[in-house]
Structure formats: C-alpha cells, structure tokens
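Q: I have three molecules that I believe assemble together. Could you output structure tokens for the complex as a whole instead of separate predictions?
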Amino acid sequence: MTPAITPTVPERASTQGKKQHLLDLQEWSAEEVWALFETTDVMAQVMTRTIKKVPALQGFTVGTLFFENSTRTRLSFERAARAQSADVISFATGGSSMSKGESLKDTLRTIDALKADLYVVRHQAAGVPYQLTRWTDAAIVNAGDGRRAHPTQALLDTYTFRECSPGFDGFEGKKLTIVGDIAHSRVARSNLRLWTKLGAQVTLCGPSTLLPHELEQFPGVTRCFRLEEAVEGAHAVMALRLQLERMQKGLLPSLAEYQARYRLTPEVMALADAQALVMHPGPMNRDVEIDGELADSERSVVERQVANGVPVRMAVLYTLLVGRQ
Amino acid sequence: MTPAITPTVPERASTQGKKQHLLDLQEWSAEEVWALFETTDVMAQVMTRTIKKVPALQGFTVGTLFFENSTRTRLSFERAARAQSADVISFATGGSSMSKGESLKDTLRTIDALKADLYVVRHQAAGVPYQLTRWTDAAIVNAGDGRRAHPTQALLDTYTFRECSPGFDGFEGKKLTIVGDIAHSRVARSNLRLWTKLGAQVTLCGPSTLLPHELEQFPGVTRCFRLEEAVEGAHAVMALRLQLERMQKGLLPSLAEYQARYRLTPEVMALADAQALVMHPGPMNRDVEIDGELADSERSVVERQVANGVPVRMAVLYTLLVGRQ
Amino acid sequence: MTPAITPTVPERASTQGKKQHLLDLQEWSAEEVWALFETTDVMAQVMTRTIKKVPALQGFTVGTLFFENSTRTRLSFERAARAQSADVISFATGGSSMSKGESLKDTLRTIDALKADLYVVRHQAAGVPYQLTRWTDAAIVNAGDGRRAHPTQALLDTYTFRECSPGFDGFEGKKLTIVGDIAHSRVARSNLRLWTKLGAQVTLCGPSTLLPHELEQFPGVTRCFRLEEAVEGAHAVMALRLQLERMQKGLLPSLAEYQARYRLTPEVMALADAQALVMHPGPMNRDVEIDGELADSERSVVERQVANGVPVRMAVLYTLLVGRQ
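A: Yes, here they are, computed for all three components at once.
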C-alpha cells in the first residue's frame, strides 16, 4: 500500500525559491512598506473576529530559529503563522549541537533538512540572517541580529504611528524622537532607517556614552543630549528600555541621575506637539525610563504597539510566502 | 493581491467576551458540575476511538501560561485542546521578561496580544488567575495557584469516583478521606470544596503540623490525627504526595515515623467500606505515602484518575469556549 | 448542548493495538526494509513540492519522549509527523517528575494518558524502548537507547547509500567501513546489524580502546586498527563524531595522535573503491575526525544523509501507523 500522495492543499504559485527576505528595511521601498501596511489592515481585522484563523498559508511551514532567547517575539511570529494555518517548527539552541563546536553553516544545513519555507532568525551576532540567505532556498526574516536591526519591531512601531496619530497624513515633516540607550538598540537603528526613508526627521536623545557619533551621518537624523530639546515639537517620542547591566559597565551615570535627566514624564511631554504619541517597544521599566502614569495615559500607544505585533508579522509572512508574485 | 479573508471555519456563536472561567469550584453549581461530567462522558468516548480527534474547537487558540513548571499538567491541557482541533500557544516563564522586573499586568497584556481565546494559568502565588480575569477578555482556567486551588484535578478525582465507585448513587452520605500534607495541598482544598458542595463528608488526616485549623471551619469537614479513625468506613481514601523537602523545614517528624503512622496500606484499608476506592493525585512516592502493592491493587483507581485527566480538561475547554450558551 | 462527536476524519483501519514497533533492525526482515525504502521514495518526492504536506496521518498523534536531549533528532521526527498532518506532543524530561523519584513505569503510564498513537523514545539507558512496549498499546520507535541502537539513523544512512552509490545493485559483496569511536556508538551498532542483514561486509576501525572485541562475533564484521587497511577497496566509509570528553577518561591517546592515525582525508580515501562514498552521521568536528574539504567534496553524501532524515522518518511513522495492514 502506497501512502496518499495528494497534498493537503492544491499546489499553487508561491514565492518559493525567489529568495525574498526581510533582513532590514533599507532593502524595502516605501511603496512596499505601504503595501505591507494594507495587508496588515486585513490581518488586524481578522484578529478581531471570533474565529481568528484564515487558511492563507495552509501547507507551509515556518521555522523559528532563536539563537538568542526571546519568548515573546518568538510566540508572536508563531501565532502569526498559525493564525494563517501554517505549521511551525521551533528551534532554540539551548540543548543543540552549536555548543558542540559545529559550524553555523553545518547547523543551518541540518536544520534546513526540515524544509521549512521560511525561517525567522534571531542571533546575538549582527549579519547572521544575511549569511543564512546564502545557505538555504527558504525566505529569511530577521527577528533581531546583534545591535544591527529588528525590522518587524520597526514596522509595528511605524504601523502604530500611522494608525494612532490623529489626522495622519504621512511621515513628511514629522519629528520623531527616540530616547535612551541608542548605542545598544537594534530597535532604534531599524526605526531610524525606516522613518527617514518615509520622510520623517529623527532625533536621537541620551547621554553621550549611549549615543553613537556615526548615527549622525544618516540623512534626516539629529543627535541631542537634552531631553527637553529632543521632545520639543515632536510628533512621537519613544522611550527605550534601560538595560541596567549597562550601568555596571560604566556607560551610565547613576540611575538616579539618568532618571532625572532622561525619564519620559508628563511634564516633558507638555513640550511636544499637542497630539504627540508616547511609545515604548517593551518590556518597560516603569518609573525608570518612562513614568508609569504616562505609560497608561491617553497619549500612550504602548498597548497598540503590542497589539499590532501579530498582524504586522502575519502580513510579513504572507507577503514573503505568497503575496509578492 | 489581498490575502484570503474567509475564516478557516464559519463564524459561530461562542462564549467569548462573556468572562466565563474556571477559577475554583465554589463558583460552579452542582448542576454545572454534573453537566460537565456528561460532556466528559462524550470526550472519554472520543478518546477510545482510533481517530481521537474532533473538530469541536477548530479555529480557537488555547494559551498555556505556566509561571510554575508542570510538564504533565500542561501537556494534558494541550492534548485536550488539540484533540478538539484548537491551536495551542505554550508560554513558560523560563526565558521571559518576568525576571526583567516587568509587572504581571504588563506581561499578561503582552501575552494577550497573541489573542488566545482561553488561557490555562499556573502560578506559585494564590489569586493570580483571578487577577488575570481583569486584564483580558479571554476565558481563564486555573491550573493551580499556590496552595489555593487546582480545580481540574478535583474535577477529575470526582469524576473518577463517580465512574468507579460500585453502584454509584451520588455523594450524599459518603465519607471521603484525604491523608497527608493537607497544609500545602491545593488539590486537597479544591477537592474538599467540591465534595462538600456535592454532599459528602470530608475527613482530613495527617500530623498536626500539616493539618491546618482553619479548614475545620468548612461545613462537612472533620480533622483527624489517627489514620485508622480517618479511614474507618470511608468510601474513598486519597493519599497525597509527601514532599520530602517539608521535613527539612521541621514540619515533619522523621520519615520513618510518618510512614509508620500515615502510610496507606492494605491493612488500614481493611477498616474502610468494603468497596472503598484508593486514590492518589500523583506523582506517587511508592512505599512512602502509599504502599506500592496497594497502588496497583483492584481497589486503586490511580490509573483511572490519570486516564480521566484529558477527557475532563476537554470538557472544561469545550464548556468555557462554546458550551455554555 | 452536546459537543460535535463526529471525528475530524473518518474512522479507518490502522495498525493500532497490533504492537508494531521499530526498536532495532534485527526484528525487521530485509523485505520490510526494502518496502520501507519504497515508501521513503514517495515521501522524498513530497518534500520537493511547494506544498510539503499530505493528509496521510490526519487525526493521529505522535508523542516525542526525549529523556536524553537531542533537538535535531526530535525536530526531524516532529516534522515527519506534521508533514503527514499528525499532531505532535513533545515531552522532554527537564522539568518533569522523573527527578522526583517516580518510577519509569508510573511516568510512562501518566504520559500514556495523553493517548498518543506512537511514541518516539530516546533514553540514556539501553533497553528502555523495549520496556515501554509492555506498558502501552501505542507503537514505539527507538530514537536512540544508550549505546545500543539508533535504527532510524541506520535506515537513513542505508537509504542514502542506495540513493547515491553509482549503479547501485544491492549490498551483496559491498565493503562498508565505520571509523572512530565504535565502542560508544549506537549508530555503528544499528548500522552493522542492518548492513550485514542486507549482505554487506562491515569493517570497524579505530584505536583498540574504542573498538570492542564482542562486535567481532557478528557474522560479516571485521575489526581493524589501521585506517589504510580498513579503507582499502571500501564502497563507503563513515567517520563517527569524536566525543572529546572520551579523551579525559583515558580512552584516547592525544588528540593529535588520533587525528594523525584516524582522520578521514582525501589521501586515505584514494585507497577506497573509485566510486566510494564518504559519510558522517553528524554533527561533524571538521578537521578532527574528517577533513573539512573532504566533507564538502563530491564523494561526500553528508548533506544527503541530513536531507533523507525527514523522508525516512515519514516512512517509518506511516508504516507503523497505517501501512502494514
């Protein structure tokens, strides 16, 4: 007896083998980003239904390759896959052979024998998602590589601004400010690349030890050491998580001094545009980098950022696997 | 090209947004418990088929949130979900941001962006499942909170008594005895609440350090320090797992003394009703709190308790998600 | 309201309850192995399609029970199950009750309440998969037990030889050589049992501390301490991973000495048959037991071994669950 050889769903066109990836946002045109947001609108609508599941990716498999741990980002991608009826393979390096001295290439080739159609990759070293594109026919989505890029976070931040900014009419002429540990933040880097591409002015603010010179080379980017100046007239202000282990490395003054100078408060937000949004990529240290009440205020879109994670990632998976034909 | 927007299964009525939960059993009426057992009968029948899967919860997603580790309880719920064609999101706190100082509310709000329809929650602190009901529209099932409650264990113990007690005619007038570390046992607490609601007399037995005064306040509950007296005429005797780490805290006499006075043996069971059942919620320390041969004897329904875990949890998920309309 | 009791797929014949297992290969006839390879051919074709999923095992559940950690073997089985639309339950012992002193039988009985149709078992102790067959009605697949057996690895190695050996006409008269730490290798043991059953001559090569006497009792097996002699005229040479922790136990000479005498190189492979294949079960220590360039050369079928893992395991699951009627 031979097994049933009819596939679960009919064969159909896909983008397979066309090497379409989301590595960072400089490779995507503004038009592609806007098209992705329209797909996201559809996905967001799906997630408000009683039955939050569509067959769009039935028969496909998404592999999550997290060489650096991040439960919530991984689960967000996995939910985005399953809500479209894709299968999920979850690979975390805890007990795997990477530690046995195997090369990254050999590891990826072994994993790739599982024949996922798309891999979501997080790695502590910048550039790894780019390398992987050379060793597999599957699509690659960068879920964070070193300090380099975290493009789906930037997409969901940007989608949230588009959704929540009153009377939104594009990014031209908007002042968008990021406050905190810019130096170690892949979220800041992906956002400034995307926001300047879309026409915004980006202001980066923090103590000089956490504010690298080279980012000022970017067109449309300004460095600034005083929070009041950075916030003045801004249309959105994003506070970054303060990783307290930085302090031990001498990169930070005392915590009290940091809080006094850089914590986002209702008072300093009074200097921003009257309809400015407060953002944070999470997880928050309440009352460290952001005032707890401000985080819960009407200005805050932190909960919308969180809520938009799954729809944006659904749109990314959909676009790479079947959408861009 | 816009994605397929037809849902996987047709939209249908559900209990969504009605905030129906299983937190503990005092909130459920005896009628609701009996109805749940009838649904469990159907599920138990499904699990005897060659194809142990029904489409009842297709399109729904169950999230398991285990802040305290328990592989077997988690897998039991996950199987109960998948056997009804629901999707599963599994969240364990090992590598998550809880340890980074994020508040429980912010953590739950982030997880809830995954839009599960029901969360199964275990937490070391009593009351957490109650708190979570305020922060999500999803249904909550308590899978164990501190020493407080473990309602699905109590339901499966009770369902097993209903199934296995010869000539079962209800709980009125039955004497049900629990032996061991009552003080630290959420299983004991949930069972005594359910059994007294259904009309049984409950006897709690153990050394005084493990047998709290306040439980005697419950109508229908008796404390007892002598095993022989506690077992006499009982219709079921449940031995609890002895957690040996309690000894180190000075709550227990020597292990040998505990075994001599409180181990459940065939000899002491001879004092019980002629058709009395022997129960244990597992995992067992054979020959510590229960005689190994007794655990394997005809009187023992330990294997039935284990076997009923999935059908009872299938019925709980079904009832909360689509059954109580 | 009673739940939908129609199963997801129609009831159908299955091998359930017939206790068919893959424990090791001496229990399978050569004819059964060849039939399995024909099913593997079909599965390999499925994995080249755009939609790599068939409904063959819809409604069945495969449980993976890894008492010893192996992410890649576990994921290979899980993908093989999901590609045939089976559900997967994944049990790893990290946080489970095994460490709480529960017996193996009680643990298995508890897991078996999840009612998987087939369990894939890896355990550090030889014989455990055999024991489990006595405690469950489900099929058991041995995914590695101690140093004893790893039959799916042997099947995929053998399938790869059948696929890649130029002008393949069977195993009769073939010389197949395994080099390295034979003593600790379940892969070597399963392969020599399968290869000799199919008619090949097997040569085992390594330092005497890693080359047990008793294996020479096997008909068709030769021990050999010189690599040149072992490779001469061979039709395939498989290098085994060198586990460096063996050195610390005094079983090995210095690493340099091992490499000088037993590393597989292009030079030594020149002594083999002109069309000989180079094999390695992975993960490789490049330039320890195998020359890195040789591993990437045309002679090497290491990538085919990796690629055949999922199709072979698909065929095993299919054969045990529905194929052998």
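A: One point stands out. Chain C touches chain A at residues 38-39, 42-43, 45-47, 49-56, 69-72, 75-76, 78-79, 82-85, 282-286, 303, 306-307, 309-310, 318, 322-323, 325 (CB under 8 Å).
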